[in-house]
Amino acid sequence: MPPTRTASVPCMTTPDAADSSGASPRFAAALRELGLDDLNSRVRRFPDATRTAAEAAAAIGCELSQICKSLIFAADGVPVLVLMDGASRVDVERVRHELGAARVTRAKADVVRETTGYAIGGVPPFGHRTRTRVLADRSLLAHEVVWAAAGTPYTVFPMEPKELVAHAGATVVDVREPAA
Predict the structure, then answer these.
(1) End-to-end CA distance of the chain
(2) By CB atoms within 10 Å of each CB, which of 16, 94, 120, 124 scores lowest?
(3) Dist CA 25 CA 21 (whole Å)
(4) DSSP 156
(5) DSSP notation for 12-45
(6) What Rg value do the Cα atoms of the chain yield, rounded?
(7) DSSP summary character for residue 145
(8) For residue range 13-59, what is the model confidence (pLDDT) as tens digits?
(9) Alpha-carbon distance 180 to 177, whole Å?
(10) Closest CA to 157 of 71, 70, 72, 41
(11) DSSP summary character for residue 108
């Protein structure tokens, strides 16, 4: 099913574009719509970008696996969001099997921005421009709290994994690459 467009707020991903909480205006609006206004006060903003899971974990001072990566893939050309812990990699073959798709590839940067309204490195797990199918790897549930991007490469927020999965509308699956 193709993604459906929802109301959007202009997306800006520079640190100066964040609202007073640090979250991007689009993400702050999404939090309000979801009744999660209190989450705005927990958004943490960093002077340096936290585009990668390793950068975010170092800035926060948490384990790499406590970072929730929001990754867009194309399953037979249709965008799908995969939520993965920061210490793991997505096994595209497992994603393909889970979705019953013929082909799954990483989405290009322009597709990520068009689908989510955010740039790579700042994509949050929910509050996107379009509604997509969401898969969350079971590994996220191993933590009491995980940290995810808050709409910019400079901001993150903490959330209990089950709550994050619920707000993202995700299906919990096993799609990480096996340990070497």
Answers:
(1) 35
(2) 16
(3) 9
(4) E
(5) --SGGGS-TTSS-HHHHHHHHHTT-HHHHTT-EE
(6) 15
(7) -
(8) 333 344 455 778 889 998 998 899 889 889 999 888 788 899 889 99
(9) 9
(10) 41
(11) P
